[in-house]
Write a structure and sequence with these properties.
homodimer, 109 residues, alpha+beta, Arc Repressor Mutant, subunit A, two-stranded antiparallel ribbon, two-stranded antiparallel sheet, 20% strand
């Protein structure tokens, strides 16, 4: 037996940000491309884009911007607002898993 | 925006106990009947029964027993093991929501 926990943000009862979307943004940051981020998640560009648009509308902050083409052409990158949001979400979740795991060991073993 | 959190138990990567099944057991306790508990959850008796059987097999403890018929006939009730499990699960989850809410207020507002 293992214990699991999850933290997410909702707006009007609809999930708007959690682990999955956090991971999508992190992948865009890693790859500098929505397309590559979508592929590595196994979802379509269209789907990834719709997640981003919904998040931007609900959170009311820009998350992804196109970078200018240079050598190798342009791509997409996270905005400063997206980075700040990611950092805050990480702080929100930090240590919750550990608290729950520690309790589980004490209570159930 | 609101923050939400959830704690559950898995066995071999498969969820075996969380809020939903906790609620099912609590309803069986309240109604003294699997059938009434299932109705009030809007699921079939068969479905409720299969949840209980799977939990009993995975957790390796008896959870529900038939009580002897008396005035008003028999029914179902939780075993001592089920009660003990519920109490431990409650202790596991206790205050996690509050921690997450408190942090959310500090970090996001």
């Amino acid at each position: 037996m293992k214990v699991k926990s999850k933290v997410w943000i909702e707006e009007d009862g609809i999930p708007v940000f959690g682990e999955g979307r956090e991971y999508l943004l992190e992948l865009i940051d890693t790859h500098g491309s929505i397309n590559k981020a979508a592929s590595s998640l196994g979802i379509s560009y269209r789907k990834a884009w719709s997640y981003i648009k919904t998040m931007e509308e609900t959170l009311k902050i820009p998350l992804v911007e196109r970078s200018k083409g240079g050598i190798g052409g342009g791509g997409s990158r996270l905005t400063g607002e997206a980075r700040s949001f990611l950092i805050r979400f990480e702080r929100l979740c930090k240590g919750i898993d550990e608290i729950v795991n520690e309790r589980f060991k004490t209570i159930f073993k």
